[in-house]
Amino acid sequence: MTRARRPKAPAAKPAAAAAVATALPPTGDQFPGSGYVPAIGRIPILDLQPQLVDNLFPTKGYVGDVVPFSCVSFREGHDIIGVELVLTAPGAQAARIRMRPGPKGTDSWLAEAQVTVAGTHEWWIEAWNDDFATWQHNAEIKIPAGIDVDVMLELGAQVVDRAATNPELTSHQSAVLRDAATASRFTSRSASFRLASLLADDVLEVIEAHPVRSLVTSSAKRRIQVDRALAGNAAWYEFFPRSEGATQAPDGSWTSGTFRTAAERVPAVAAMNFDVLYVPPIHPIGRTNRKGPNNSLTTEPGDPGSPWAIGAAEGGHRDIHPDLGTVEDFRYFVSEIEKNGMELALDLALQATPDHPWVAEHPDWFTQLPDGSIAYAENPPKKYQDIYPINFDGDRNGLYAEVLETVEYWIELGVKIFRVDNPHTKPLQFWEWLIHEVNAKHPEVIFLAEAFTRPAIMHALAKAGFQQSYTYFTWRNTKTELEEYLTEVSKESSDFLRPNFFVNTPDILTEYLQQGGRNAAKIRAVVAATSSPLWGVYAGFELAENVARPGSEENIDNEKYEYKQRDWAAQEASGYSLAPLLTKLNELRRANPALQQLRNFEVQFSDNENVLVFSKHLPGEYSPDGVSNTVIVAVNLNHSGIEEATVYIDQTKFGFAADTEFGVEDLLSGHEWIWGGANYVRLDPSTLPAHILRVRHSAL
């Protein structure tokens, strides 16, 4: 089913509406001449949105998503038309939603619908001549002017007579219309009385709900793929299982953490209100060309290597690193995650070390060089000597089948989410095929694309099936950069790309975080958690780990290449840890449905280039409690000092009149104020760098 936003006028037609025209022309008549059937219907319906430009793939939504729809529709002459969105959810009757006119002179029509069921939805648009509205417009001009009075009244009575025959009406509704038509034909009464009979409130109420339609025209059908809620609204946390519970002996040697010790960290992650726990690859790690600390080319005995260097004598992509435990230990780990109200995301990295069984068993899955060697992975100037990239064209069917079976193997072990490493280095066609095959059997499975690459490729991956995408958010730090980028992902690409705003990764420690330390981490967390319904952090972010390896954008002593111990409890006891802030941010996200939407991001103005202000508003008809939910975020982007600003709010974005004053509550500090069009803020990054304000609607 869908929950639809219905304009005050005209009203929406009930679900059991008249049958939809399925061919052009609607009557099915043949045209003379060659029999050519115009692509344009009797009433043109053009520029349907949302749809992808190439129309190869459906647009996207997720359960709870409020989807905007629009089209351009008009007809010749001056008759008034009506336009209606028809939306069908899997297994449900079509919902019919009257569209409202867009800006004057554009011939655009707009509507929104909240999708509440997962699966493929079909939608189309119907337009028709609104016979009653056309008559009413003409009658209200002509009759008071004494022009064609009797003719206009009889035309109105005939339209109402037709309306009364609608089989969807109740007997009472039909009687209301018949009585009005009869009264309008009392020639002994005044013209104003007769006109008023046809325009009585009870008549208009019936006609508004059941328009009198002619020349009904239907557009072609479009699709929306609606995924489960977690595909569009979730907070992610990443950690390395081998570090959780790892111990170091006095001689410097390490004992790896296991799935059992990692499970002990799970309740703390869940206590921060995260929804997804993501772990890097858990497979055997190759020994040939194994990387040492800080990505060095030399290793010492006991260096664990990079988890992304997959494959050893112990096995490959369907095997577990012996240090982490057994399949039963993995099942236990998954069960503990689920017991704590989260889901596990597993890394899917399609690459192999020289030691991977695939190398010996399927050499045609790799690129052979003229000297007989196999090409290793490169991202110049970076070189990954411990990894062989896969050649997807050597034995396509064999490789594709192996990957599908591998993904299904982990699904059987309880994995429903895959974070895909470097998908842009594999064929787009492969991902389209794989995600289709997996989702056909397991529609609940979610794929996140880790593709920091050119926009066209990132967009194509999302269109081809990836339910989530990493983005350029980590490198957007100034007010202008953020305003432009947040507007782009919430408006321009929101029909197909769901941005997951990770604030850091094992590979990404931005200059902003390096320079700003703890203050910068707070600022980035606030922006990410409130501007997008998807966001994530990599372990250590809450401790503001910000020391980079010289000349790089990576943490020094990077956890990709070695074990890392962190004293979480001590850092929280000292008050240094940002875990309380992350906990609060995730709590606010769950409590405010406006923050669970992507498309509702709106920039608000401040007179300070270091103060970013934006709002997210959800009308009451889409909110679980029926009350509009509005959140205003004002954040100081200067991690080094206090900033003051005047914030100018467009209250009309929240359904208020332009001059309305309204109450706000700061969800971080608990303070309350009265706000209006212009408001003063003072933000100190050393304490709370932001206001997260919930607008009080219920008391208005």
Automatic annotation (TrEMBL):
Residues binding alpha-maltose 1-phosphate, per UniProt? K291, Q351, D386, N422, K560, Y561
Q: Name one GO biological process term.
A: alpha-glucan biosynthetic process
Reaction(s) catalysed by this chain, per the record, are: alpha-maltose 1-phosphate + [(1->4)-alpha-D-glucosyl](n) = [(1->4)-alpha-D-glucosyl](n+2) + phosphate
Region ranges (Disordered):
285-306
- Please list the GO terms describing molecular function: hexosyltransferase activity; hydrolase activity, hydrolyzing O-glycosyl compounds
Q: Which SUPFAM superfamilies match?
A: (Trans)glycosidases (SSF51445)
Note the Pfam families from the entry.
GLGE_C (PF21702), GlgE_dom_N_S (PF11896)
**Annotated Glycosyl hydrolase family 13 catalytic domain residues:** 234-589
| Residue numbers marked as site, Transition state stabilizer | D507
Active-site positions, per UniProt? D421 (nucleophile), E450 (proton donor)
Gene3D superfamilies noted in UniProt:
Glycosidases, Golgi alpha-mannosidase II, Immunoglobulins, Phosphotransferase system, lactose/cellobiose-type IIA subunit
Q: What is its EC number?
A: 2.4.99.16
Cross-referenced InterPro entries, in alphabetical order? Answer: GH, GH13_cat_dom, GlgE, GLGE_C, GlgE_dom_N/S, Glyco_hydro_b, Ig-like_fold
Keyword annotations for this protein, in alphabetical order, are:
Carbohydrate metabolism, Glycosyltransferase, Transferase
Subunit: Homodimer.
Membership in a protein family: Belongs to the glycosyl hydrolase 13 family. GlgE subfamily.
Query: What biological function has been recorded for the protein in this entry?
Result: Maltosyltransferase that uses maltose 1-phosphate (M1P) as the sugar donor to elongate linear or branched alpha-(1->4)-glucans. Is involved in a branched alpha-glucan biosynthetic pathway from trehalose, together with TreS, Mak and GlgB.
In Swiss-Prot or TrEMBL terms, this protein is called Alpha-1,4-glucan:maltose-1-phosphate maltosyltransferase
Q: Can you name the source organism?
A: Pseudoclavibacter terrae
Query: Which gene carries the instructions for this protein?
Result: glgE
